[in-house]
Queue: 2 jobs
Job 1
Amino acid sequence: MKVRTRSSAIIGTLCLVASLALTTASADEPAALRQAAKVTLKKVATAQNPIAGTAGPGGTVWIAERAGRVRVLDGEGLGGPVLDISGETTTDGERGLLGIAFDNEFAHFYISFTNLQGISTVDEFAVRDGRIRPETRRTVLTQTQPYANHNGGDIKFGPDGYLYIAFGDGGSGGDPHGNGQNLDTLLGKLLRIDPSGGKPYAIPPDNPFVDDPNAKDEIWAYGLRNPWRFSFDAGTRDLLIGDVGQSAWEEIDRAPANSKGGENYGWSQMEGNHPFRGGTEPANHVRPIHEYDRTGRGCSVTGGYVYRGKAIPDLKGQYVFSDFCDGTVRALQMENGEVTGVSDLGVNGGSVVSFAQGGNGELYVLDLRGSISRIDPA
């Protein structure tokens, strides 16, 4: 879903079988591969192109299928669709149903998708007794997309109760419209809005560019190419973003829990720690906490979560992520927001398009080809 431009076949089909391990890491990594926690992948369900997941009420995990269906995973397995918008979206390019989220009280459910015209759309549904009320549906936000790739589409509620929305730079390749560094567009940004505070939404008064007439009030962070998957650490409340690179470097970005927003992650002047096509590093560039190059099998980072479950004590506090083409599940060991080591967890999730975090902190790996697996102790 969030693949670099030079892999046009992957962008078009999104069903590449990836099973080989990534063999190289960033040259300035603080340590070589460290001893990993011992884990295994336990397949718990099969879906049609599972693409996103979120913790639901009653210990469930809700799973989005790219074509437009939402299904609920519980102790009995994966149920039938509880929502189906397949007639309203398309799987052309990198489009489809791209993200789902509940608010922090499970009172509203949100979907992020590209409609038949290719417009990114975030809709809201009221929830009662753990069930969607279709008649309450309303559109919260839309954004025109100039191309069928780099649409982003991930959505999450932060610990602050606000809705964060990730949009890519609009697509094509190399950010031809300069959206990443342009504060007058929502493209290439992470947004922060209050969907319950206004119609269709309100702007949090402490957003970083509220008083800037040359910037969109919704922007929380910028300089992103395709922030395909992001998450908040349930322990520290830090924000971590997996931002897909252009041609050479994949990166993971961070903002601390006490951030006031406004981070500039550099695109398209920078690709990771490196100037992109003669670009100049912005003075306020926030460098990635981790990057890896493409000399191995990796091509498109899939951001994950900091593990806060109880089943695998040796993994606690580590950021788990993967790569769509490589499929190797890896973990960053961190101290005070800095990476101290990286480990190969010794399992391969296939075409890893996303992770999901259950309400108990356990993690699930979503393979776009169909498998939903939980990361269990070996």
Job 2
Amino acid sequence: MSDIPLRLGTRRSRLAMAQSGQVAEAVSQVTGRPVELVEITTYGDTSREHLAQIGGTGVFVTALRDALLRGEVDFAVHSLKDLPTTQPADLVLAAVPVREDPRDVIVARDALKFTDLPRGARIGTGSPRRTAQLNAYARAHALDITTVPIRGNVDTRIGYVHAGELDAVVLAAAGLSRIGRIDEVTDFLSVDTVLPAPGQGALAIECAADNASLIAALGALDDPFTRVAVTAERSLLAALEAGCSAPVGALADLLADGQTVKELRLRAVVGTTDGTRMVQLSTTGPVPETYDQATALGRELATEMLAQGAAGLMGERAQ
């Protein structure tokens, strides 16, 4: 085995460094080679604009992919929900490891649950998807909340709650788990309340398409069930022609009978950010055995959603 380190491209945020560090250890075990992290700053890290304004799609990914294509890094780790749905021909998703908890969570003052927040509670989130579903739930259950657009890393967001500027913030369970802060969660939001972003909780390990030996080695970290699920979710997102920052929630989960996985259920929602108009549908079928079958499942559900007016609820559609 070579002692030459493999270079892993990663964003600089604490969360990105944590999840890349975990992947680096796993890659080192399967390849027998040391792995060094190469920190790369992306446009999404430096821009202070809200994600909905800068487009969302690819803002955290492009610089990493450019480094891969220039040969400055051997592979890169992304949060799968940040990846644009179109895959460049010269790059390949070599592995999608086992997914973490895909749910969204609340970190609220006084250890409050979402439904126990006081009238007029201010809830921070930078996500149109979360905003739409929280407002829809509040409307349906006579809760009085105000969603407040925020940006920043986990520390910044939770800091708004500690400082008394917000009553609660919404974050991804997987991110808090990866940086060892899951104990700060005051409420896990059921996917019946808020469907996560397509691919949420999953990581993507990407490398050059012509690096056959590395693709083969990284493949040891791939989880087939996770890959099938996120493929269906991302196919739906692509068929809706929606970007990562669109108000689209989707989750594919495996339905098991005891130890035997029987079917895959795909649920999705699109809504206006004020929560007044929502299209929410689901479909259940045999567990896809190929990429094409998983893609078809997502595309079929998206077609049904478009027939029910989903396109008109998304604001600007992705270009």
